[in-house]
Amino acid sequence: MSNVFLNSFRSEWLKRKRTAGAWLTIAGGTMIPLIILIQRFYFFERLASDNGSPRIWEMLYSRCWQSMAFFLLPMGVILVTTLVGQLEFRNQTWKQVHVTPQSPTTIFLAKLGVILVMLLQFFILFNIGIYLTGVLPALFLKQVPFPAEAFPWGKFLLGNGKFLLTCLPVLSLQFLLSLQFRNFMVPVGIGLGLYILSMTVIQWRYAFIVPYIYSAAAFMKDQFKTNIYAWALGYSLVFGAAAYLLFLFKKERS
Predict the structure, then answer these.
(1) pLDDT at residue 253 above 90?
(2) What's the pLDDT at 97?
């Protein structure tokens, strides 16, 4: 069973190279740190004092995650999940996939696994970008010291873990939609509509019922008086189970 799954995962991993999702993952993980780095070089007179601050990493973390949490992260999850999930629809190859010696469960888990690994890849690239945003000015400009504060690996891992959890409901629902609809614009349109709705009702006391708001809520921290991470986990399990059951018992496999 493990060999079958690994072979299926490798196949899905190779197929994902034919989608824009692979490039979106790289671009999404590096764009914000690159913009912040350019801004830091543009205002180079502040580089030395900023790098000497004991709060340098907290400042960079906050600046990078502000744009990422409110816009790029949910949008990226919507697009990448749909692109990978709908690859067979676009190439009309679902029938070929289902005649291979692998169960629907293996196909489902392999495809979902590829999307989750791509999400982890994004987080790794993003955090490397934040680190380079802090140290590159010191490498290129002699008057700029290296960050006075040691890189807070533990704090960053905890923060990233929370943001990762807030992505899972969006990923699960988009995966469900991408496996059910042939038209690419349907799951993307639903995802964008729910994202816009979440931003519209962000000040509502019950906005936490919209799962697309969780990344922004994780950045805002005290906006909601409820445990958004428990809600995120609950939604993820419900949407994931629904996606699996709908895929397993889907009558039309083409």
Answers:
(1) no
(2) 78
Both tokens assigned to 223: 């906006």
Does residue 253 belong to any structural domain of this protein?
no
From the list 219, 173, 227, 238, the residue with the least C-alpha distance to 65 is: 219
Whole-angstrom distance, CA of residue 249 vs CA of residue 254: 13
Task: Determine, yes or no, domain membership for 181.
Answer: yes
Written as six digits, the tokens of 33 are 């740190």
pTM of this structure: 0.91
Q: What is the DSSP code string of 241-253?
A: HHHHHHHHT-S--
- Among 11, 163, 154, 28, which residue's Cα sits nearest to residue 93? 11
Contact 106, 43 (CB under 8 A): no
Summarised one tens digit per residue, pLDDT across range 188-207 is 999 999 999 999 988 888 88
Number of folded domains in the chain?
1
- Residue 90 covered by a domain: yes
User: pLDDT at residue 91 above 70?
Assistant: no
The sign of the dihedral angle between the CA atoms of 177, 217, 29, 153 is negative
Range of the domain at 99: 2-248
- In the predicted structure, residue 16 carries a pLDDT above the cut 90: no
In this structure, what token pair is assigned to residue 192?
């964008």
> 116-151, pLDDT tens digit by residue?
999 999 999 999 999 999 999 999 888 889 998 889
Look at residue 254 and tell me if it is in a domain: no
Which two three-digit tokens encode residue 146? 């290296």
Q: What is the DSSP letter of 69?
A: I
CA atoms 75, 248, 165, 213: torsion sign: positive
